[in-house]
Amino acid sequence: MKAEIITIGDELLIGQVIDTNSAWLGQQLSLLGISLYQRTACGDSKEQILACLHDAELRSDIIILTGGLGPTKDDITKKTLCEYFNTNLVTDEKVLAWVTHIFQMRKMPMLDINLQQALMPSNSKTLWNRSGTAPGIWFDVNNKIFISLPGVPFEMKVIFDEEVIPLLKQKFELPTIYHRTLQTCSIGESFLAEKIKDIENNLPSYIKLAYLPSVGTVRLRLSAHGDNKEKLIHEVSQICNQFYERIGEYIYGEDNDNLSEVVGKLLKEKNKTLATAESCTGGFIAHQITSIAGSSSYYKGSIISYDNKIKTLELNVSDVILKNDGAVSEACVKQMAQTILNKFDVDYAIATSGIAGPDGGSEEKPVGTVWIAIANKNEIIAKKYNMGDNRERTILRTSLMALDMLRKMIL
């Protein structure tokens, strides 16, 4: 069973709007056991949409369109679908009553263009949208399913969950695809592959391993295909156990786990507290930590010592350290970590100092050189890294590495 997604809108092509709908739909289709064959973006052009529909029909069983269902002139999806399926628009009285109700409830005047939301292709099924005025559309033609959904993400998701999924389950006998993802940090993709190559080589043909690297992390996704879901879950679990035995120190979570959230849970479970002293990361670690709800119970605060004077005045980094070792040094981050630990009276501390670039590097300390220190009441661990020459990636990698170092110390 193959599906295809067509996203419609000039704003997607020029990068003004990021297409998050396709990523979400891909996840939902996978959970249903439907393989996503292709994703295509096209502009607000009838000719482009027709061409995309024609090509998709040749390749896939299920074609999902998003976007172009609004009331304005650039929303042409409904009319284009009518041309493709040789039909016309008729008023859906239930939708008309709903749209009228929404405008009355909001105490807004009903314009003629809003009435057009109730016009639906005569040979289609209306997919109810309880979150907005643009319903979805379902065509069943020659055993191919065409689904048109609004581009607004929260409306699209509601329609897909409440209308599309039940209809797909009625229409098709769907296979089972089971995914399980391990989240790793502090190790590169190639080194990871080398450590687990024998396990990967012995996977059965119906279980595939995918490496999904991003800045600072690598996800290992196991995908199992078959008819017996319980059997697949058991087999994938056994393989994951092998991974934990082999590379467990690098695995910080599974599926959608967030490293900041994982660290927060550990601190909460152990009733411990944390503070940070940041230089090159400029508060980004604090941002990641405080983005997690409930972080106020374990996170106490930060000092962003971007200037060396602040390192001296607030974090007790001596002029001797700054002169002899420099701000980007083991001695500096250790002192930063020790001071923030005592000053904020916490159980753990993180300190970072580095050269994010693009300027400021030297032969001895090139751009991307970073020192990270993690401290508790009994010890301070400091490590030196080279994070590369991209400023944004350096800040993100440093933050992730610091959180992972803290995770390991807590454990």
Question: What report would you give on this structure?
Answer:
- This protein is of the alpha/beta class and 411 residues long.
- The protein is built from 16 helices and 17 strands.
- It has helices at 10-13, 21-31, 46-59, 77-84, 93-105, 112-115, 153-171, 189-195, 197-201, 229-247, 259-269, 284-290, 308-315, 319-324, 330-343, 391-410, and strands at 2-8, 35-42, 62-66, 89-91, 119-121, 125-127, 136-141, 144-149, 176-185, 207-214, 217-226, 251-254, 274-278, 299-304, 348-354, 369-375, 380-386.
- It has a six-stranded mixed β-sheet, with helices on both faces. Strands 14-13-15-16-17 form a five-stranded mixed β-sheet, with helices on both faces.
- α3 packs across α4 and α11 (259-269) packs parallel to α16.
- The longest helix has 20 residues, at 391-410.
- The chain is elongated, with a radius of gyration of 27 Å.
- The mean pLDDT is 94.
The portion of residues forming beta strands comes to 25-35%
Mean pLDDT: 94
Number of strands: 17
Unreliable stretches, pLDDT < 50, 5 or more residues? none
Helix content: 40-55%
Distance between the first and last residues' Cα: 44 Å
Global outline: elongated
Tally of separate helices: 16
Major pleated sheet: 6 strands, mixed
Query: How many whole angstroms does the radius of gyration measure?
Result: 27 Å
> Biggest sheet: strands side by side, in what order?
2-1-3-8-7-6
Structural class: alpha/beta
